[in-house]
Write a structure and sequence with these properties.
The complex is a heterodimer of chains A (667) and B (287). Helix content of chain A is 5%, strand content 57%. By secondary structure, chain A is mostly beta strands. Chain A has one domain: TonB-dependent receptor, beta-barrel domain (Maltoporin, Chain A, Beta Barrel). In chain A, the strands form four sheets. Chain A has a 22-stranded antiparallel barrel. A five-stranded mixed sheet of chain A has the order 1-6-7-4-5, with no helix packed on it. In chain A, a hairpin with a 7-residue loop joins strand 2 (65-68) and strand 3. In chain B, the strands form four sheets. In chain B, strands 12, 13, 14, 15, 16, 17, 18, 19, 20 and 21 form a ten-stranded antiparallel sheet that branches. In chain B, strands 1-2-4-8-7 form a five-stranded antiparallel sheet, with no helix packed on it. Chain B folds into two domains: 36-150, Immunoglobulins (Immunoglobulin-like), CATH 2.60.40; 164-286, Immunoglobulin-like (Sandwich), CATH 2.60.40. Chain B has one helix spanning 2-26, and strands spanning 36-42, 46-52, 57-58, 60-70, 79-88, 93-94, 102-104, 109-116, 126-135, 138-147, 149-150, 164-168, 174-181, 188-198, 211-218, 224-225, 230-235, 240-247, 252-260, 266-268, 282-286. The chains are: A mainly beta (667), B mainly beta (287). Chain A binds chain B through residues 295, 338, 340-342, 344-350, 394-395, 397-399, 401-403, 405, 450-451, 508-512, 514-515, and chain B through 154-156, 158-159, 186-189, 218, 220-228, 246-252, 286-287.
């Protein structure tokens, strides 16, 4: 059994290195969380979520990422209370941007758990070297590659069923690996009907259907030199968004990359990885299934990103360092055609993203200096040049000129950050203090979005090409103490923003969307602050039990001390886990206090307190070369009807849900 | 292979010849290039032809170009042309606001505009057209030629477009207001221009130094409007009222107007307010 355990962990931890044996990431940091995703071989008591969970559920279960929900599908992750514009979301270092102007498709929705090995969550400027425009944090989804192992052939099949919404998950993947070559490939299906909120209330338009295919391939071309390729195709269709006025007909993501890795390219450098990538996202909205459509419209969107990066990692004595250059080119295009109810009238056509083109190139360097066994210091910096503008002159640029007669078609920006951290550890104590200063460019919607309707506050949002970069001074303190059976940790982070970008009403402009309250234009607020505080402990007792708890408090304020939107109230979770070699069982509750710091200006209202209880049990066993895994449980045991601060328009979350997951692994 | 090459070469040479030949045919700068013939008026000595881009007279602003040719087919560039359209509705007759016919400099071409108040057949009316010319000492003309003024439709091809209006001003005078530009509206910033004439047949004197307040709206979008529009004010240089209209999207736009005199007193039309989503004076633009 122990052998299985260690073999499993080996794979999960990704210790089948591409080339070198040295750790290939920046030294383990207290701030970077790694969430293990792939439902891979073997027994992993550390895995918290059910194996059929979506990427979003994995992220949510980490307690480090919040989730803004507009339905049952494609939740939008937030880190430190910040979403897409302020965090960087990458796939294995690749930039990828959503194609929906209404944020119906955060890029995390274009991958499946089976695609991923782990997710690195960074806070503030601590991030993977390829992150850009990240001011609040970063999420890097690391791909599930077999690596150049000696595993030979293996295969997995899995199935999951959830009672609530009749959710079904089926997956199959296989891999072949030897020290010179690997390939792993899989297909995945996930679908659900409408789910029921607590008290059996059906949430209409919460269905979805998703298929995913992925393949990774690697080949050692010469000793210490390898080529690796990745292809992911993700196709979702008939996705309902109960919190919005429209659904999605199809959302397609094609993600591809080709990487070349060299071991020990130069003295004092142990790894050099260079990657080129391209991804294409096509997102087609659909309002034809809604009974109460005021005006039918077509809203397709497209986001294409191509890029490359090259990372050189090295170590020398007490230094570990990394150099990185990266560049990408994104084109974001979204159109809207509205069909007047007066059928004699011509359709109304506009570009909501007028083929916005962003080219960004940056250079990054980091060095961690181990002063001695107890002290280390780290310094990192990134500088990028960005040029963005409106590619479509005829409609995209011309329509923005109506609102900004002086605007140039393209604009250059310099963005960057510098961050430092000091880490002390001794006798189980660990303390880290870090500070950073950096900036981000406005997002596509913030700079060039054209009448993007936000159902949350019922305003049309107009981009502002004259926005200044937003910058932030970020500090964080982490203190933890490990005893033999107890771990206690406290973390605090504070972001002090300058030129904070947010939409403010402009009463002189006429809204476009029927029923909208007005128009908000993105502006720079002189100041804003976001603060996060997290306390947690983990206690092991009686050999087989773990009790862990986590409390989170966050606060966001604008320059007039009003609350920023979508900031979590006090929330908590606590769980008791039993585990032995084959069996796990967990009982947990999570909840939140009443949201008192809300802001009606952004469409928020008070969200009540809630807590829900979950139970689960899992069993793994091995027969010959086959490992069986099963997990079952019930979520929201008491069938509470509730919604959280981050549920769009207060759509209720799932009521009681009984799940069953089965997995079989052949080696 | 060689044969294929030869064929290709000969095709190429032939093509060059054909295209050159064509050019030669048209080379003595045809002043009507890009224009379509509306109607011809011919006598024993001269042929006067009316042209424009659409090849038709149409309700509202209609720009018309004229050429005059002698019997040998030579374009005459020193003629003087005058015209007079008149609609006969049985009980009454009236003309329509129009300009003089003036020479286009550098071309054997003459231009004028007519702001047709009605289309042919409207109220059972018939448009009669007088045209006279003078070339040196010789002169001639055509009288009571029936012309066909088409109706102007919105893009649906059925609904008449509102592009010319006759209103009774607060000063007890009647005015004709005619939309000229934008003829090819686009998303973004558009030039807008209009004529104001006093509605006094047969001369319809052009009114100068008034203004037209402008408020473009989309009625089917809860009266959505665009910012940074400019009222139409008199351009002394171009002898027309000019302003700016901004379209944030394609579709049906209602250009609400307020007619003001030189003292800025409102003569006709009303501002848009909560209780009033349209002016009594408006044009329609749809694209």
């Amino acid at each position: 059994m122990k052998r299985i355990l260690s073999a499993g962990l080996l794979v999960i931890m990704g210790t089948c290195p591409v080339v070198a044996q040295q750790p290939d990431t920046i030294p383990l940091s207290l701030n970077i969380r790694e969430i293990i995703v792939t439902a891979k071989t073997g027994f992993n008591p550390g895995r918290q979520a059910k194996s059929s969970a979506s990427v979003e559920e994995y992220l949510q279960s980490s307690g480090k990422a919040g989730m803004i929900k507009r339905g049952n599908y494609a939740w939008e992750p937030s880190v430190n209370g910040m979403t897409s514009e302020r965090i960087s979301v990458t796939i294995d270092g690749m930039k990828i941007f959503h194609a929906c102007t209404d944020r119906m498709d955060p890029v995390t929705s274009y991958v499946e758990t089976v695609n991923l090995g782990k997710v690195s969550l960074g806070s503030g400027f601590e991030a993977n070297p390829n992150a850009s425009n990240h001011i609040g944090g970063s999420i890097d989804m690391r791909l599930n590659k077999s690596g150049f192992c000696t595993d030979g052939f293996s295969a997995n099949v899995s199935a999951g069923y959830e009672s609530n919404g009749n959710l079904q998950v089926y997956g199959a993947d296989m891999s072949y690996a030897n020290p010179h070559f690997y390939i792993n490939s899989g297909i995945f299906h996930r679908s659900s009907s409408n789910y029921r909120a607590g008290k059996s209330k059906e949430v209409l338009f919460s269905q979805f259907n998703k298929n995913n295919f992925f393949s990774n391939i690697g080949y050692v071309v010469a000793n210490g030199k390898a080529i690796e390729g990745t292809l992911i195709y993700d196709h979702a269709r008939n996705v309902g968004y109960p919190a919005l006025t429209m659904d999605v007909a199809t959302a397609d993501g094609l993600i591809s990359s080709l990487a070349y890795t060299m071991e020990n390219p130069f003295p004092k450098f142990y790894k050099w990885e260079t990657k080129v990538y391209y991804n294409n996202i096509v997102h087609i909205m659909d309002d034809t299934k809604r009974p109460d459509v005021i005006m039918h419209m077509d809203m397709p969107g497209n986001s294409r990103t191509g890029g490359a990066y090259s990372t050189l990692s090295g170590r020398n004595d007490n230094h570990r360092y990394s150099l990185n250059i990266d560049g990408y080119y994104n084109r974001s295009y979204a159109e809207m055609t509205m069909y007047s109810n007066n059928r004699n009238e011509m359709p109304m056509f506009m570009l909501t993203w007028g083929d916005v083109r962003t080219i960004n190139a940056g250079i990054f360097a980091i060095d961690e200096y181990r002063i001695n066994d107890n002290h280390s210091a780290r310094l990192s910096s990134k500088i990028s040049f960005q040029r963005d503008g409106v590619g479509n002159e005829e409609i995209g640029y011309e329509s923005l000129l109506v609102y900004y007669p002086e605007m140039p078609r393209y604009k250059g920006r310099i963005i960057g950050n510098v961050a430092a951290r000091y880490l002390f550890n001794k006798n189980g104590w660990e303390a880290s203090a870090s500070a950073g200063y950096g900036s981000r460019a406005p997002s596509v919607s913030e700079a060039y979005g054209f009448f993007l309707f936000n159902t949350f506050d019922s305003y049309d949002y107009l981009g502002n090409p004259g926005l200044k970069n937003e910058s932030s001074l970020e500090t964080s303190l982490i203190l933890s103490k490990k005893y033999k059976t107890l771990e206690v940790k406290t973390e605090a982070s504070c972001f002090y923003f300058y030129d904070y970008i947010i939409g403010k009403p402009n009463v002189e402009l006429h809204h476009m969307t029927i029923g909208a309250t007005g128009v908000k234009v993105y502006q720079n607020l002189p100041r804003a602050t976001i603060m996060n505080l997290n306390l947690s402990f983990k206690y092991r007792f009686a050999n087989n039990f773990i009790w862990q708890s986590n409390v989170l408090y966050a606060r966001g304020k604008d320059d007039k001390n009003n609350s920023l939107p979508l900031i979590s109230p006090i929330s908590y979770n606590t769980s008791l886990t039993f585990l032995n070699n084959h069996f796990t069982a967990e009982a947990g509750i999570n909840g939140a206090a009443r949201q008192t710091n809300f802001n009606p200006e952004y469409g928020e209202d008070e969200t009540g307190e809630y807590f829900i209880a979950n139970l689960s049990a899992g069993y793994d066993f091995k027969a010959g070369n086959v490992i069986f895994r099963m997990k079952t449980g019930v979520e929201n045991l008491f069938d509470k009807y509730y919604s959280t601060y981050s549920d769009w328009k207060n759509i209720p979350r799932k009521g009681r849900n009984i799940f069953l997951n089965l997995g079989i692994n052949f080696n | 292979m060689k044969r294929l090459y030869r064929i290709l070469v000969s095709v190429f040479i032939a093509a060059v010849f054909i295209s050159c030949g064509k050019e030669e045919e048209n080379s003595p700068a045809d002043p009507t290039e890009g224009l379509k013939l509306i109607q011809e008026f011919a006598d024993d000595n001269y042929t006067v032809s009316a042209w424009n881009e659409r090849g038709e007279f149409r309700l509202g602003y209609t720009k018309v170009y004229f050429t005059i040719k002698d019997k040998e087919g030579n374009f005459i560039d020193n003629a003087k042309l005058t015209s007079f359209p008149e609609m006969d509705m049985g009980m009454m007759k009236h003309s329509t606001p129009r300009s003089e016919i003036i020479k286009v400099s550098g071309k054997a071409l003459y231009e004028a505009y007519y702001n047709f108040l009605m289309y042919s057949g409207q109220g059972n009316g018939v448009w009669y057209y007088d045209l006279s010319y003078k070339v040196g000492d010789a002169g001639g003309g055509f009288e009571d030629v029936v012309i066909d003024v088409k109706n102007a439709f919105r893009p649906d091809g059925k609904t008449q477009a509102s592009i010319i209006k006759t209103v009774a001003g607060a000063d007890d005078k009647r005015y004709v207001i005619t939309l000229v530009e934008p003829q090819n509206p686009k998303v973004g910033v558009n030039e807008i221009s209009a004529y104001i004439h006093e509605s006094k047949s047969p001369d319809y004197p052009a009114i100068e130094n008034f203004s037209l307040g402008l408020d473009p709206r989309m009625p089917s979008m809860e009266n959505h409007s665009s910012p940074n529009n400019s009222d139409l004010i008199w351009s002394e240089a171009e002898k027309i009222y000019k302003g700016k209209v901004n379209f944030s999207m394609t579709g049906y736009w209602k250009l609400n107007l307020i007619l003001r005199n030189e003292k800025k007193e409102a003569l006709y039309g009303n501002p848009i307010s909560e209780n009033n989503d349209s002016s009594s004076l408006f044009f329609e633009v749809e694209f």
